[in-house]
Amino acid sequence: MTVQGAQFDRAGHLRDDQGILEALRSSSDARVIVVRGGRARIDDGGIVTVTPAEVGEGAEWGLLGKHSGGTPLLLAAAGPEADSIDAAPAETWLGVRDTGGMLDAEDTDLLVTSVALASWLRDARFCQACGSETVIGQGGWSRRCDRCAHDIFPRTDPAVIVAVESADGERLLLGANANWRGRMYSCFAGFVEAGESLETTVHREIEEEAGVLLDEVRYVSSQPWPYPRSLMVGFRATASDQRRARPDGEEIIDVRWFTRDEIRSALAGNGPVGLPGAASIAHALIVDWCEEGA
Description:
This protein is of the alpha+beta class. It is built from five helices and 15 strands. The protein has helices spanning 20-25, 105-123, 198-210, 260-267, 281-292, and strands spanning 31-36, 39-43, 46-47, 60-66, 72-78, 93-94, 135-137, 142-145, 150-152, 157-165, 171-177, 188-191, 214-225, 230-239, 252-259. The strands form three sheets. Strands 1, 2, 3, 4, 5 and 6 form a six-stranded mixed beta sheet that branches.
């Protein structure tokens, strides 16, 4: 599995420039990615950008950085109210889950970053310590409470996601989340709790959700996931006894061991179950395991 690095210049050195957002909002060279409700405009050419003047009132602004061609990029985190940008067809407003395979690496990186930062900009407008309204700093990458001098930064919550294979490596254990009503099976995932290491979380989550103890755990790769602002840390693991597998009955309503032939069929859309979309690390973990037996 390829670990993809950042594809656009975040221009971190510009964030402390006084008035950088105001200057770029007045610039004819800057382009803006508008995010509304976790979605951005997408067309056949990738992410749609607009000029700052095309963005309606009430948006929260941030500096994304620079496009690979050097164009300054801003983020406008728009509210739910309608404006002229909404004249675009509804199907062109897409989230990360909707874009698997549609975007190149740079636009994928931009979309994930834009959605995550937009969520934080709109959700963290008030001080966590005293409740006062905060002001934007560092080009949209921090907020400060002038009343209690409390600084707030975008939060990223680590979560593990695990592909569990049988001891002989010939079967993959997947689970059906209750929210999916049995229509889709995926790898097991969960947030890291206070005081836990990533490895401890892997063992705990798999035992809690699937009843399985693990003999071997190894890191594979990670993926930023902006729902709301997570870092998915992907692992492969080997079950010590595949006969112990059982759903917890609450979050996971079914667990099932799949052969590679079944996984190949499901990846092709022919069942026996649905699998995660191509935009997710769960999909990559499943494909990675499946291709080992090709």
